[in-house]
Design a protein that fits this description.
heterodimer; A: 138 residues; Aldehyde Oxidoreductase, domain 3; 9 strands; elongated; B: 80 residues; alpha+beta; Ubiquitin-like (UB roll); 2 helices; 22% helix; globular
Chain lengths: 138, 80
């Protein structure tokens, strides 16, 4: 089972964990992305996330489908927030449950690593003296 | 034919808008579309890279574009 969401609302770690838990799962792995206060020595004011909604959901579904067939996992959550986020807020939660921990660890890592490569979501860093779309220019 | 290209992230800044209409040949490929876009918006050439999505899928250079396709510029992604 898979729960994929891209939302302007605050994400909720506890409800993500609750959703993936089940009597057949012995291990849950959770990745939580958070907004850091600094990047390359510069103080971040806020981050802004933009998504190509339909394609992002579709790419996330592909990632979840791959994980389900590659590792013995039970449930997968991929939640991403968009809009303006402050330091310490949470743009992404990945949660995976499996009978044993090995599959949960590997699937969770795969999901966040691949999300960062393929899902059409963009992050803009806002500094005191300007703003930059991450990775846009060499 | 005129096709509408959706823009996100830095591409939206470059277009000055969430989408732009561009004139292309009826049998244009993704590669041809990129040429037309770069001619109209030379700033696109300064990006590290960008992809073109056709109907919510990444499209390779040889894919042909039809008038009713949903086309988007996908600058380097940075989610997560």
């Amino acid at each position: 089972m898979v729960d994929i969401r891209i939302t302007n609302e605050a994400l909720d770690i506890a409800s993500c964990v609750d959703w993936v838990m089940g009597p057949e799962s012995g291990g849950i792995d959770v990745f939580i992305g958070t907004v850091r206060s600094e990047t390359k020595g510069k103080r971040v004011v806020q981050l802004e996330f933009e998504a190509y909604q339909n394609m992002a959901l579709s790419e996330m579904k592909k990632i979840a489908a791959y994980a389900l067939q590659k590792w013995p996992v039970h449930k997968i959550i991929i939640h991403h927030r968009k809009g303006v986020l402050q330091i310490g807020q949470i743009p992404v939660i990945i949660a995976v449950s499996a009978a044993h921990r090995a599959g949960a660890f590997e699937a969770c890592r795969y999901i966040i690593d691949t999300l960062k490569e393929t899902v059409p979501i963009w992050k803009k860093e806002v500094f005191e003296d300007g703003e930059v779309w991450v990775a846009a220019h060499p | 034919m005129k096709i509408k290209v959706l823009a996100f992230g830095i591409a939206k800044d470059i277009f000055g808008s969430a989408s732009s209409e561009i004139e292309v040949d009826a049998s244009v490929s993704v590669a041809g579309l990129k040429d037309a876009l770069e001619y109209q918006f030379p700033e696109l050439k300064k990006l590290s890279s960008y992809a073109i999505a056709v109907n919510n899928n990444y499209a390779s250079e040889d894919i042909k574009i039809n008038e009713r396709d949903e086309i988007a510029i996908i600058p380097p992604v940075s989610g997560g």
